[in-house]
Amino acid sequence: MSTIEQVPVTVTVNGKKYQRFVDPRMLLIHFIREELNLTGAHIGCDTSHCGACTVEMNGMSVKSCTMFAVQADGASITTIEGMAAPDGTLHALQEGFRMMHGLQCGYCTPGMIMRAHVLLKENPDPTEEEIRSGIAGNLCRCTGYQNIVKAIQYAAAKLNGRTVQEAAE
Amino acid sequence: MIPGQFAYHRPSSIEQAVRLLADLGDEARPLAGGHSLIPMMKLRMAAPEHLIDLGGIADLKGIRDRGASIIIGAMTTQNELIHSDLLAAKLPIIRETSLLIADPQIRYVGTLGGNVANGDPGNDMPALMMCLDAAYHVAGPSGNRTIKARDFYEGAYFTALQEGEIVTSVEIPVPPAGHGYAYEKLKRKIGDYATAAAAVVLSFSGGKVATCAIGLTNVSETPLLAEEAAEILIGTALDPASIAKAVSAAEAITAPASDGRGPADYRTKMAGVMLSRALQRAARRAAA
Ligand SMILES: Cc1cc2nc3c(=O)[nH]c(=O)nc-3n(C[C@H](O)[C@H](O)[C@H](O)COP(=O)(O)OP(=O)(O)OC[C@H]3O[C@@H](n4cnc5c(N)ncnc54)[C@H](O)[C@@H]3O)c2cc1C
Ligand code: FES
Ligand code: FES
């Protein structure tokens, strides 16, 4: 096959605008990690099962291993790198994962947090059941999910101005 | 896994998309949500040289109320189906089914058009569309036409779509108010295709089944319309003996593959179990 024309992709990631010329077949996860050097979003399965590559795009949670970068042209994307405040103060979700021991190896965590971020925007005070179905597209091989659910409950409580439980059991 | 190379096109109208597909021939393929196509491209089971991204075509979006029917644009996502108040009121089985497809991330991008056009017997929407007697509006090089869902599926990945044709929308007749409905799906885990699934829409009149339609997912090369099973139930009170007869009739038309989801005869039995549960749940939801 003859050479394929590179195409321009312009995206706003974590509030900053980027333009790159890419092969149409470049996956969004490779664009984010290799072109933008933002390595927080991970590749776990590469088959749209595990959710480690989840980023927020135009208010939706998407698996960036199953999307071409060209499809994201013009989009606004948030990755885990965009969650903490500029002074380093953790987002309530990051704080929740830390306080409630919501991670062990941490490989799934960026995807979990980005998914939970959209979940809490759509449903600010979810039940445990709603949290579990909301993160059903994210796999964790370490924690058994108990403390991930608690971490998200912690964040929901904090964002709703309630007092938060201090630590995991 | 990196897909093969392709040239990318992003038309902004249906006419442009159809023209591109006609000009580029069988090396070109439409791209919708990409959640069936991109995995196949990664495995090199598909290697189109041109992708025509339908994502920039506003006319393929949206859900419209036509009174007796509802028209859903092909690029409407599964998540949009779940959150539509119109569908919740008139066709709640669409929400119930959408919630059983894949996982939240996939539902934000996976589209109704991609799900019905894909031709994978594992997709959940095709059997539901057959059950609801939906029609697919199609645009192609020789103009527009409409294909009934019940006439659309010819084999695994073979449909009535001709080269260069795209599904532009899906039109679904609104079932009568007070109808009962259920989509029952057995799957091993969230994000799995069905071991077997059944869609049921029925209505009662004077305590007897007045209308009934049944679709079955992933128990044959194509989705199935279980016509004989539905006919057996018409005029009955949906008593256990009639349900058992209908279940046998439905099981008889299945021809599932033995695979990781279980041996063929198990999957046939599970189709029967899903149907029996769907009938009972639909009956509880129906007005008498
Ligand atoms: C992990 C995982 C689990 C899944 N589980 C399920 C499940 O349980 N049930 C289920 O139903 N699906 C499931 N899916 C599939 C998912 O729902 C897909 O999104 C859907 O099958 C295809 O829709 P799409 O918009 O992504 O289409 P694409 O992948 O973009 O396209 C699919 C095919 O249809 C063609 N096409 C797309 N749109 C049109 C159109 N308008 N006209 C003509 N041809 C068109 C494309 O050329 C391609 O051949 C799963 C997917 C994944 C990755
Ligand atoms: S790497 Fe994308 S879902 Fe696993
Ligand atoms: S913490 Fe290790 S995979 Fe989740």
Protein architecture, described:
- The complex is a heterodimer of chains A (169) and B (288).
- Chain A is an alpha+beta fold and 169 residues long.
- In chain A, 30% of the residues lie in helices and 15% in strands.
- Chain A is built from five helices and five strands.
- Chain A has a five-stranded mixed beta sheet with strand order 2-1-5-3-4, sandwiched between helices.
- The radius of gyration of chain A is 17 Å and the shape is elongated.
- In chain A, 49% of the residues are buried.
- The model of chain A has no long low-confidence stretch (mean pLDDT 95).
- Chain B is of the alpha+beta class.
- Chain B has three domains: 7-53, 2-Layer Sandwich (Uridine Diphospho-n-acetylenolpyruvylglucosamine Reductase, domain 2); 60-173, Uridine Diphospho-n-acetylenolpyruvylglucosamine Reductase, domain 3, CATH 3.30.465; 181-283, 2-Layer Sandwich (Enolase-like, domain 1), CATH 3.30.390.
- Chain B has eleven helices and 14 strands.
- Chain B has a five-stranded antiparallel beta sheet. Chain B has a four-stranded antiparallel beta sheet with strand order 11-12-13-14. A three-stranded parallel beta sheet of chain B has the order 1-3-2, covered by helices on one side.
- In chain B, helix 9 (227-233) packs antiparallel against helix 10 (240-252) and helix 10 (240-252) crosses helix 11.
- Chain B is globular, with a radius of gyration of 19 Å.
- Chain A binds chain B through residues 1, 4-5, 7, 23-25, 27, 46-49, 51, 54, 60-63, 66-68, 70-71, 73, 115, 119, 133-137, and chain B through 1-8, 10, 31, 34-35, 38-39, 42, 49, 51, 53, 55, 79, 102-106, 108-109, 190-191.
